[in-house]
Give the backbone structure.
Amino acid sequence: MASLKSLLPARFRKDITVIPVVRLSGAIMAGGNQFRQNLNLATAAPLLARAFADKQAPAVAIMINSPGGSPVQSRLIYKRIRDLAEEKDKKVLMFVEDVAASGGYMIACAGDEIFADPSSVVGSIGVISAGFGFTGLIDKIGVERRVYTAGENKSVLDPFQPENPDDIAYLKELQLEIHRVFIDLVKQSRGARLKEDPDLFTGRFWTGQRGKELGLVDDLGDLRATLRARYGDKVKMRLIAPQRGLFGRKVPGVATGFAANALAGVAEAGLNAIDERALWSRYGL
């Protein structure tokens, strides 16, 4: 009988606890194509749905490794995790890998508990906008910029025009509103665990060790050791991997003619890679 029992899949054995594991990695950006998948609700939602569908699992473990990106996509992923946790009545255990900063930390806040490595990077609770100005370049190469708008604010923050103090003031207002949403989310999620610190919501980031002292994370530890300590040595971790089609990973969205869109897809992937590289480099990674 014992030998037959050992042949059963782990999910059918009462002496083994199976924990679904989802890995959310990369810069958080809307869109994506067959050449490059970004971390956003469209790519994360199918994995989360499959993980929370496991009726026997007492919890879902999520590994997060992201320098941030889109505040909208970050909050959408956060909300989807919390909605599923309440709907399926499951605990969410969040594990930070290299970094959970900015939008990455916003997603981490969806965990009932957050674990990090002592050397992980966490925090960066702030909002940033960055770009380039090309007015001097246009003058040097002799290009004349022509812009026609209906609506006096349609060319706000045009990188080919000199900066307008009114435009910058308006952008700052938007950033402060988004920052307030971020701060409120962190306070609601972490509650009394947060420690008083004047730099907590300034955009500064810390190691996992310091993050624990500030209440940004609950404890230090890795996925395997933490789950074994909580659920016993026989716990099994079931990685929820993206489904693959005949020719590789499926990409969410509606497919159109491959040949007609291949060049544009490669160019978009290249630009996204540059943006992502800039996000990671802020944290020395």
Confidence is low (pLDDT under 50) at residues 251-264. The longest helix spans residues 165-190.
